[in-house]
Design goal:
The complex is a heterodimer of chains A (148) and B (132).
Chain A: E1 13-15, E2 21-23, H1 38-69, H2 71-82, H3 84-111, H4 118-147
Antiparallel strand pairs in A: 1-2
Helix pairs in contact in A: 1-2, 1-3, 2-3, 3-4
Chain B: H1 14-18, H2 27-53, H3 60-68, H4 70-98, H5 102-131
Classes of the chains: A mainly alpha (148), B mainly alpha (132).
Chain lengths: 148, 132
């Protein structure tokens, strides 16, 4: 295999199952993507929001365990969630949760073999973003109304 | 036909060459269970998020009586089971994608699965303790 002079050759270095090198196209990775395209940005965001959701689950576990432990531990948890940092975190978590839910719905739609053409992909992608904003706003509107 | 047939410069069969290189065990089931739990989580997440949004300044008595209601307790237990299964499966895929060394990869996956199992059990016990 000759020395690589063209950057695009980097995605042409494959490996056979016996370990020997072979020149063939690999599935494109970060170097081949424009990360700021809507399609790739939403894909990356789906993974990030999924990981963020796991942190949110840990907070839910804390809240439930604190409630089971008694009034004083529950008060501490409630104080944290009501603090500036807590509210900020919960707002971010709400947006991440709705994004991951809607983008997940888009993935289920893709799993059924539909919606792969570019216009539809961009349409559903924008719908996910608008839906995330709308659901996050609705959730916090409900929360504020219940709070007052 | 002769042009398209792959040529193998080895006497070992393709199956023999890929054996032991990983996967091809429970991959489809892993993928499928991620979809199944995601479908279950759609209504459960809607219910949980909007329920929690409705009780920002609830007292401990109000919250525990809400968790203790059978309808809420059952849905909470269902949400926790589906959510932790989905989380463990999802984090496993993330680790498999970015962590190459075999020992570190397996260690990280086992750590994530252990943490998910323990957190799930803790949350489940909490709900049951309040509800039962």
């Amino acid at each position: 295999m000759s020395k690589i002079t063209d950057a695009r050759e980097a995605v042409m270095v494959g490996r056979r199952s016996d370990g020997s090198l072979v020149r063939r196209p690999l599935s494109p990775h970060l170097q081949a993507y424009d990360m700021l395209q809507l399609t790739s940005a939403l894909s990356i965001a789906h993974r990030i929001t999924g990981v963020v959701w796991s942190l949110g689950l840990a907070f839910l576990v804390w809240w439930l365990v604190a409630a089971a432990a008694g009034e004083a531990p529950f008060g501490k948890a409630q104080w944290f969630f009501g603090s500036f940092l807590g509210v900020l975190g919960l707002m971010g978590l709400t947006a991440a949760a709705w994004y991951h839910t809607l983008a997940g719905l888009r993935h289920l739609w893709w799993d059924s073999g539909r919606g792969f053409d570019l216009p539809t992909t961009y349409l559903t992608g924008r719908a996910v973003l608008i839906g995330t904003g709308a659901l996050t706003a609705l959730t916090w509107l409900m929360l504020l109304i219940a709070w007052i | 036909m002769a042009d398209t047939a792959p040529t193998l410069r080895t006497l070992r069969t393709p199956l023999g060459r890929v054996r032991g290189l990983g996967a091809a065990k429970g991959g489809t089931h892993h993928w499928w269970m991620q979809r199944v739990t995601s479908i279950a989580l759609l209504p459960l997440t809607l219910w949980l998020v909007f329920s929690l949004a409705g009780m920002p300044d609830s007292t401990w008595q109000e919250v525990t009586s809400w968790i203790g209601r059978p309808f809420n307790a059952v849905l909470l237990l269902a949400f926790l089971a589906a959510a932790f299964h989905h989380t463990a499966a999802g984090l496993q895929v993330v680790i498999e994608d970015y962590l190459r060394p075999e020992l570190a990869r397996m260690g990280a996956i086992l750590a994530v699965k252990g943490a998910c199992a323990l957190l799930w059990l803790a949350a489940t016990l909490a709900v049951l303790r309040i509800a039962v």
